[in-house]
Amino acid sequence: MKYDVYGIGNALVDIEFEVDNDFLKQHQIEKGLMTLVDEQRQIELIKALDKHMKKKQSGGSAANTMIAASQFGADCFYTCKVANDDWGDFYVKDLISAGVDTNLTLRPRHSGLTGRCLVMVTKDADRTMNTFLGITTELSQDELVENALENSHWLYIEGYLVANPTSQKTMVTAKQLADKSQVRTALTFSDPNMVKYFREGLAEVIGASVDLLFCNEDEALTYTQTNTIIEARESLKQEAKTFVITQGRNGAMIFDGDTFIDIEPYQVEAVDTNGAGDMFAGVFLYGITHGHSYAQAGKLASLASSKVVAQFGPRLKWHQAKEILNTLFENP
């Protein structure tokens, strides 16, 4: 089978909660960022959050992106690692039901603890994540399915993997395999903290360059060590052949290899920004693998992202994806 996108990233069961700023202060949680925690700390938080839960589903940044691309019509494969525990069983079942093929069905799973991400959403629609990675820290070259990767149009790599030495090596290996097979590589920086603390590791993954880079304004400025977005976007030309800089309420800026394209935002009442960047990347990848220009793909991705921030959780329902596609075709 030929895949449109082969993704690689952390496998985390996302558990979403609605909280207020007082809760974050009371439990000394840094607002608006992803923070890695140990199992004991996460158990304490789960107990404190018991009555605040909204939903749970298979996640991890790149998993959300693969699911988004799949919902819109892309054929996707996702490499990740979960344990043979109840959380792992839930993860595999949920990922498959979302239409994504995975290495998890090809080989026995190991003993351990499946990773979990507590997503705490405040009334300003900001999302704060506390993540216990569990067995996903052991994601290695052994999880790569070379035949699936070699038979894909794009490789999509999650920046969060750079925080772990073993996973970072796997990122590099995956890109090398893609380059060897003339599979184009897309990378997302994932989070400002990944760029701030693991810039050298990301640079090693990028190598000479990547074909497509996804980042937001903060990540672009931090990685390029510049002061303005104009400076940052010029610097990024040295890192990526094409790139997307998401700008929240201001839409997005796309470089298609020749020119810059401004993508207008869709004004909505934001409820939960969790997964907006993942949704943008997934729908954009669907677009460029299905005959759409970078401008068309950006418009489609912007609309999809506006829909996902207007509800809880990082996913759309299947009928919403169809409605968004219809909108694009009616207003090309």
What would your notes on this structure say?
The chain has 13 helices and 14 strands. The protein has helices at 21-26, 39-48, 61-72, 86-97, 146-150, 165-180, 192-197, 199-206, 217-224, 229-236, 276-288, 294-308, 318-330; strands at 3-8, 12-18, 34-36, 53-59, 76-79, 101-102, 115-121, 127-132, 152-158, 184-188, 210-216, 240-246, 252-255, 260-263. The strands form 2 sheets. It has a 9-stranded mixed β-sheet, sandwiched between helices. Strands 3-8-7-2-4 form a 5-stranded mixed β-sheet. A hairpin with a 5-residue loop joins strand 7 (115-121) and strand 8. The longest helix is centred in the middle third of the chain and has 16 residues, at 165-180. The relative contact order is 0.15.
Structural class, by secondary structure, is alpha/beta
Tell me what the CATH architecture is.
3-Layer(aba) Sandwich
Radius of gyration (Å)? 18 Å
Tally of domains: 1
Q: CATH superfamily name? A: Ribokinase
CATH topology category name: UDP-N-acetylmuramoyl-L-alanine:D-glutamate ligase
Strand content: 15-25%
Helix content: 25-40%
Helix-strand pattern, N to C?
Answer: EEHEHEHEHEEEHEHEHHEHHEEEHHH
**Average pLDDT taken over every residue:** 93
Total beta-strand segments = 14
Give the termini separation: 30 Å
- Strand order, largest beta sheet: 6-5-1-9-10-11-12-13-14
CATH class: Alpha Beta
* Shape annotation: globular
**Which residues form runs of ≥5 with pLDDT under 50?**
none
Quick take:
By secondary structure, the chain is of the alpha/beta class. 40% of the residues lie in helices and 23% in strands.
